[in-house]
Design brief:
- Two copies of one chain form a homodimer.
- By secondary structure, chain A is of the alpha/beta class.
- The first copy, chain A, has a single domain, classed as Aldolase class I (TIM Barrel), CATH 3.20.20.
- Chain A is 43% helix and 15% strand.
- Chain A contains twelve helices and eight strands.
- An eight-stranded parallel barrel of chain A has the order 1-2-3-4-5-6-7-8, surrounded by nine helices.
- In chain A, helix 2 packs across helix 3.
- The longest helix of chain A has 17 residues.
- Chain A is globular, with a radius of gyration of 17 Å.
- The two termini of chain A are 25 Å apart.
- Chains A and B meet through helix 8, helix 9, helix 10 and helix 12 of A and helix 8, helix 9, helix 10 and helix 12 of B.
């Protein structure tokens, strides 16, 4: 199983306290030292909209890179891709929403405008030689619109694949997905994606995060986004809460016999360090009960 | 799917604030009015050990009984069964632990002593004409002992069935169970149980509660214990936290196409009322985000 650590981006983006760049760098390096092979380090969004991500370039430059590890950044528009390329990234996650309302709130674009921008982003990133992960936010439901058309999600998947992207990602940004729906959608995406990796990005807002992950595993998915401590949430989604917690996911997967190659003692220590800095209990659960003495 | 509401017992037993008997009665009636068809109203344990349950008789007497609803109580020893019979219950949950350490802490008995007591409990309850649910605590792991022998759990199941009990219950009291293990154990219990209902009692201590429920559903189980608000936890288990939340379970099951016949607006209102009384956020998740306006 492949875990992409998104704590530094999805996790930190909603935090009110400005986290020092040096600490972000240290925690990214700590996650890699625990065995994480993919990290989303930051997002190249407008610093006025998400001030916590204003140091994206500094974070990306500051992290000591280890071979065999994918260091990525999230981008939502052409300007972001240009910044990511300039920052020297070799991997980028371009992303758009399947919900018109969420797209307008999060990216200030209608769905059709977002799709045009998305094609442009993919083109620039591919021309610059980057590996491109294409993501669809709110793929399983929207807190403003309710149900999201599965046909539209599948249409977006096809359009993204036509752009020559390298990896697919479906995000349950709102935590509204359920295992039956996850299986139904993923089973339609798998044949389209052929051999490209499919990532599932899950939030535990309604308590179904781990169950949805296992439903996707049943369909052959083995790439998941997680955040240490269960941090996270989109600032532009009503009631958004954290990603599935890295250490909870690792604990569950290892118990079930899957290999993550992540040292969970180290991940739990990291989650507790972040928790201590932020000064409040983070939602991840196993850090409270699992003793590795 | 059949939900047994255990908030009034497993939920309240760990609460420090003494909850007025009248409120317990009201909340049990509210759960039934929301559509719950089974309630564990209290436990007949020593009031010095669990002071919150000292009003078991008063609660059981005070609840207005609706036809078609199973009103039960938990008992851990012969004295408890005698009290339950005297209180006029027609259904009782007798229970013992599969962990020697937990059994000594929770019931002051070794495993073999607990089994003798269990047989006696079953005998008295059956002779009094009660419907008997037999439960095994810590069936999936113990916070003190670690792994619990599956062979021993299956041996207990057989012994309990030999006593002529009417329903089986397996409890993941510690929240250590994982879906692979749940399937492995349940698949061995199902053929033993023949047509008797099998209940799964799950805690969300490690975030796997809902995933474990779905694993059991895959094996044909359709009876689950839950607690409103995600209340609960055994006072004699290190790091114990709440049951899977009734309203989260109902929400997830209904999304997946299963019928619960429970009005979740009412369950959420109940969870919020209990939360307001206790004066702290309860762990149930959907009450925070699901609007039924």
């Amino acid at each position: 199983m492949i875990i992409e650590e998104q704590g530094p981006r999805d996790g930190f983006q909603v935090e009110a306290i400005q986290i020092p760049t040096e600490l972000k760098i240290k925690w990214i390096e700590d996650a890699v030292s625990a065995g994480v092979k993919r990290v989303q380090m930051s997002s190249f969004v407008h610093p006025k909209l998400v001030p916590q991500m204003a140091d994206a370039e500094a974070v990306c430059a500051g992290v000591s890179k280890q071979s065999g590890v994918v260091y990525s950044g999230l981008v939502l528009n052409v300007k972001g891709v240009e910044r990511a390329v300039k920052a020297g990234l070799t991997h980028v996650a371009i992303s758009m929403s399947a919900s018109d309302t969420h797209s307008r709130k999060n990216a200030n674009k209608s769905l059709s405008e977002a799709l045009v921008e998305f094609s442009e982003m993919a083109k620039i990133a591919k021309e610059a030689g980057l590996v491109v992960r294409a993501g669809i936010q709110c793929a399983f439901g929207c807190r403003y619109e309710g149900n999201i058309s599965e046909e539209y999600v599948l249409e977006l998947v096809k359009k993204h694949l036509d752009l020559g992207i390298d990896e697919l990602s479906l995000a349950d940004s709102t935590g509204m997905a359920n295992p039956v729906q996850v299986k139904r959608i993923i089973n339609q995406v798998v044949p389209l994606a052929r051999n490209l990796p499919i990532f599932l990005h899950l939030h535990d807002t309604e308590g179904k995060g781990i169950a949805n992950m296992l439903a996707a595993i049943d369909c052959g998915v083995n790439h998941f986004d997680t955040a240490f401590g269960g941090l996270g949430g989109c600032p532009f989604i009503k009631g958004a809460t954290g990603n599935i917690a890295t250490e909870d996911v690792v604990h569950c997967l290892e118990q079930m016999g899957y290999e993550t190659h992540i040292n969970n003692q180290k991940m739990i220590a990291l989650a507790k360090e972040v928790e201590a800095f932020l000064g409040r209990k983070l939602p991840g659960k196993v850090k409270e009960v699992v003793s590795f003495d």
